[in-house]
Fold these 3 entries.
Entry 1:
Amino acid sequence: MRKFLSVMTATVMLAVALSACGNSGGATIKTVEEDASAAAASTTAAEEAKESTAAAETEASAEGDYHIGIVTGSVSQSEDDRRGAEAFQAKYGEDRVILATYPDNFTEELETTIQTIVNLSDDEDMKAIIVNQAIPGTTEAFRQIKERRPDIICIAGESHEDLPEIGSAADLVCNNDFVARGYLIIRTAHELGCDTFVHISFPRHLSYETMSRRVAIMKAACEEFGMKFVMESAPDPTTDVGVPGAQAYIAEHVPEWVEKYGQNSAYFCTNDAHTEPLLRGLLENGGYFIEADLPSPLMGYPGALGLDLTEEAGDFEKILAKVESSVVEKGGAGRFGTWAYSYGYTVSAGLAQHAMNVIDGKSELTDIDDISKAYEEFSPGAAWNGSNYTNADTGVKADNTFLIYQDTYIMGDPGHYMGSTDVEVPEKYFTTK
């Protein structure tokens, strides 16, 4: 795999609104003296002038007179995703960046989900639409958009649909590296002294290719490291129980799980809403938490720790420091991990930035280095790694689909990075299913 994000030296202030990049004016058009005896030359010059004007207008449009749409879940379901979209909007303005939210109960409101995404293409100035997370219905929405507006760039962040499927409709797909992380999360748990790994999920998530393959990889990695792998079921928050019911179930069962599997057991849940009660329960009862499904110091930690991060909003160095201090205070040093920068936040803002760079002619859509530059703006100093998605059935790598991950940070006094992005993941795991 290829490490593709370099360490930045400048700090990016995410909440500061910046002026739109580019030139808002047109080019100066050269005039040609009229000469009755050179009508042909005059005509040619006029045509060139017309073309120059058109080019200037196109450039002006590309450099500022267009819109970018970002669709995310709600704050209650996917806070980091939404906050990243808001940060990008704050940077470039509400007049250029249009935000939309898909329903919390998106599995039951499929048509509403599709229409929410498609509606953004009604805007004649819309040039790119980013959906993060790309929940079921995104593929169909992108197909409908491409039928009516083939000029719009469609980008999927963290797809819930099978990657070959979403890749057939989207121009670009970026997911967390479920292959590498399936191995590395287990490896990290082993290095921290864990003997059991508990995977918490529900049937809908386990039907996704990305999650089912990750489970298979985690099982295989547990065998490699001599650990026990356990599956536990929990309610799906998109069903009738809702988020409150799902969270109550986790809160009730964490003490039982820790007693059953022991203090050296590590836990992982596939749903954002499950994360907060899981963290709270592990802080109170023991056990390990390597990182969230979509890692972030904001994923579950503020609620589990009772933290108000209003003053630190947008500054992930301060956010991580405050979260870490509270974890240590509650006796969790060396047992809880995260990514230093929010994955969901970075994906929403970073993919929108990448789309803007592509529209402005500064980047290539499927160049992993260009994608990295856009991510860097919202995760200064972070170490990342990534690769093209490989189809486990065919062994073929997709040109427009990328899997990425950030180094794991274990909180403590002091905390430390695990060096995950420097670890070579055994090749066999890339086709494990």
Note: The first strand starts at residue 2 and ends at 5.
Entry 2:
Amino acid sequence: MTDGMVRKWVRQFNDGRTNVHDEAWSGRHSVVNDGLVAKVNEKIRENRRFTIRMLCDEFPQISKTVLHEIVTNRLNYRKLCSRWVSKMLTDVHKTK
């Protein structure tokens, strides 16, 4: 942590700040929303033998890294024998 940041915080608390948590930042908003996740999931269910590169062709406005994050973290899919399957199979998934 830099001395400048410590000085800034000391100044803010001396001026009356009482909240120790970070304030909401106005940086770049996330591209990932529920609608996009649903569209990606729909494309995956149409063709389980897809690649991330194929998804990039379907969604050219979304980067490969973001699509990989959606598939692996948000939808909990993983590659298994050249097919993407859910990590946690329920009884409904097992019957399909």
Note: The two ends are 53 Å apart (CA to CA).
Entry 3:
Amino acid sequence: MLQLYKNIKSRRIELNMTQSDLASKMGYADKSMIAKIEKGVIDLPQSKIIAFAKVLNTAPGILMGLDGTSVDQSSLSEGIKIKIYGRVAAGIPLEAIEDVIDEEEIPEELARTGEFFGLRISGDSMEPDIHNGDTVIVKRQDDAESDEIVIALVNGNDGVCKRLKKYADSIALISLNPNYEPMYFNREEIEEKPVKIIGKVVELRRKF
């Protein structure tokens, strides 16, 4: 598989594309993911190989170092479809939400690790990394580590996408856009409002 990562890099350079350019086209938040992929640090599922081939205007078989210019597409898993919501409301189970606006595919390998959904971002509070109209892929879970990007429900309102910061007796939900003030909650407020984490963002997808 090392040949795959070398071919991704060489094709990117051939197209005069920077790592940041490729990251943006693939829906990654920044170039660090591309750097890791090109070094062979991250294994790519078959669905991602297809996506890279489309962005790099080549065939999956060429990226994989196979002879010829094509590969049997049936041998490349298309992944698992998940629902993309326009909003996530407090007090309503995801299964009951009717605001399903789209579907996205995630790699089968990822789908096996838990339950996932997508959320279409509205607003600019997570600029410059996450834009209005972007889709975030979210793993359902009720907690996360400090500094991870989460989807949280606050005080009965719709879900918000923020960076979680944990302190000894409180938490903060922080926008990446400095024009927005952080939201701080002590233990009592977390219980009373309430503040609930419903998932961790694991991937960003952007369409042009």
Note: The radius of gyration is 19 Å.
